[in-house]
Amino acid sequence: MLDSVVPLGTEDVPVDRALGRVLAEDVVADRDVPSFDNSAMDGFIVVPGPAGRRLTIVGESRAGAPADAPPREGEAVRVSTGAVVPHGEGGVIPVEQVTEEDGAIVTNADVPPAQHLRRSGEDVERGQTVLHHGTRLHAAELGVAVIAGRASVTCSLIPRVAVLSTGDELRPPGAELGPGQIHESNGITLGALATAAYGDVTLRQVVADDPHTTRQAIKGALQAADVLILSGGVSVGPHDHVKPALDHHGVEQRFWRVALRPGKPTWFGTKDDKLVFGLPGNPVSAMVTFLLFVRPALAKAQGADPTTTRIRARLTQDIPRNPGRDEALRVSLDEERNATPTGPQGSHQLRSMLNAHGLAIVTAGDGAARAGDEVVVELI
Ligand code: AMP
Ligand code: MG
Questions:
Q1: Which amino acid residue places its CA nearest to atom 3 of ligand 1?
Q2: Containing H/E element for 80?
Q3: pLDDT exceeds cutoff 90 at 237
Q4: Is there an atom of ligand 1 within 6 Å of 232 CB?
Q5: pLDDT one-digit tens code per residue, 135-156
Q6: Is the CB of 43 under 6 A from ligand 1?
Q7: CB of 184 shorter than 6 A to ligand 1
Q8: Residue 320: its pLDDT value, please?
Q9: For the CA of 183, the nearest ligand
Q10: Quick check: 168 pLDDT over 90?
Q11: What is the mean pLDDT of residues 264-280?
Q12: What is the pLDDT of residue 88?
C-alpha cells in the first residue's frame, strides 16, 4: 500500500503556522547560535583572578546593549544573563559572589578564566543542518528553525481527506432513533483520527445504501480530497454498493480483505495519485484499520516516516491466537510497557477503544500468546 502513496507537493509556510507540518527541505543554520559570547549569569565581567579584589564598576553590558570594551585590571563591567561578553577573555562572577559598595565590588570568590561564559556556536554552528527533510515540526523543531534564521519553511502540502459513512441505518448525533437505526459515529471517529494524523477533513457525509447515491457521493469526494475514506458497505451483502461505485469511477482496486481481526473487509484502491480506503463499518474495525492503514498512508503522503508509532511491549495475560488472522488487540500500557487488553474486544464494542494506548498485534497461529511475550504495538 505504501508503495502506491505518492508524496504531495510542497509550499512555503510561515513558522508561526507550521506546527504539525512536515519539512520538505533541510534547514541549515545561517549563523552561529549564540552568535556572540555571552554571560550565563547576572553578575560582573572581570579579569580572572583571586577572591578579595576591589574592582571599580566602569560600565554595563545589558541584553541587546553590549558594553564597548572588556574590563581592565581593577575594573568590573556589570552584565546580565545573555548579554555580550566582549572578546570573551574575562570571566563572570555572579552577583551572589560580590559585595557591591560605592560604585565598586569586592569579589568574594576566585574567578577562573572564561567562568560562566556561553561561547558563540555552542548550540548551533553556521552551516550545520539542524533539521532534516521529513521531520514533523513540533515546538522544539519550530524554535530551532527560528534560531537557525528562518521565518518560513518549505513543507509538504496537507492531505485533504473526505470521510463518507455509508448505511441506511445511520442517523446524525443526537437524533431520535427509529427502529433499527443507530447514531452515526464513524464519521466522527474517522474525521477525528484524520485530523489527529494532520489531515485536513474537507468533506464528511452520510451516504444511503443505494447505487446511484453512492456513485454521486464518491464522485464529489474524489473532487474534494486527496484521500477518500469510506466506512461500511465493503462486505459482500446485497446492500454493499461501495466497490461497484468505486469501479464505476475508475478507482483501481489494489487489495480487498486482509488477514486481520478486526478489519477483514478492508479495501484499498487508487485513482491517479488519489488514495481510497474502504473501511469496515463496525466502529472498532473502522478505527483500527484507519490506524493500521490510513494513518501510515497520510504520513507518507506528507513525506513523513510512517513507522515511528511502533514500539514493543509485553502482554500481561495469555491471548489465544486466531488461526488465520493477526489480531489488533486494544491495550493500555503502563510505564514499563506492559500491555493489558482494555476489556471485551468485539468489533462493535467501541468502548474497547477508550483508554487504549495502542494496538497490540497478536500474530496468527496456533495456541496462545503468553503473558510476558513481547508483541509489536502500534501506538494510538
Ligand atoms: P457494514 O460494513 O456496512 O456491513 O456495517 C457493519 C456494522 O457497522 C453494522 O452494524 C453497521 O450498522 C455499523 N456501522 C456502519 N457504519 C457505521 C457508522 N458510520 N457509525 C456507526 N456504526 C456503523
Ligand atoms: Mg452498511
A1: 232
A2: none
A3: no
A4: yes
A5: 999 999 999 999 999 999 999 9
A6: no
A7: yes
A8: 97
A9: 1
A10: yes
A11: 97
A12: 64
Closest ligand 1 atom to 280 CA:
2
Residue 344 Cα to ligand 2 midpoint, Å, equals 23
Q: Which three cell numbers stand for residue 334?
A: 503502563
Query: What's the rounded Cα separation, in Å, for the pair 210 and 162?
Result: 19
- CA Rg, the chain, in Å? 30
Q: SS in 3 state form for 148-185?
A: CCCCEEEEECCCEEEEEEECCCEECCCCCCCCCCEECC
The answer for residues whose C-beta is within 8 angstroms of residue 340's C-beta and 6 or more apart is 316, 317, 331, 332, 333, 334
**Can you tell me which residue has the cell 478507482?**
251
pLDDT band at 17 (very low <50, low <70, confident <90, very high): very high
Top mutation candidate among 282, 290, 348, 349 for ligand 1, by most atoms within 8 Å of CB: 282
Question: pLDDT tens, 98-134?
Answer: 999 999 999 999 999 999 999 999 999 999 999 999 9
Query: Residue 52, by phi and psi: left (phi above 0), alpha (psi -120 to 50) or beta?
Result: left
Residue of minimum CA distance from atom 16 in ligand 1: 281
Q: In what order do the strands lie in the sheet with 267-271?
A: 200-207, 160-166, 227-231, 274-279, 267-271, 252-256
Q: Distance between CA 256 and CA 59 in Å, rounded?
A: 77
pLDDT confidence of 307, banded at 50, 70, 90? very high
Determine the atom of ligand 1 nearest the C-alpha atom of 234: 2
Question: 358 with 313: CB under 8 angstroms?
Answer: yes
Enumerate domains of the chain plus CATH numbers.
11-31+126-156 (3.90.105.10), 38-118 (2.170.190.11), 160-301 (3.40.980.10), 310-379 (2.40.340.10)
What 3-state DSSP class applies to 309?
coil
Ligand nearest to the CA of 182: 1
Closest residue (by CA) to atom 23 of ligand 1?
281
Measured CA to CA in angstroms, residue 174 lies from 83, 171, 182, 183, 185 at distances of: 60, 8, 10, 7, 11
Q: Ion ligand 2 — residues with CB under 5 Å? A: 167, 232-233, 281
Ligand nearest to the CA of 286: 1
Q: What is the mean pLDDT of the chain?
A: 97
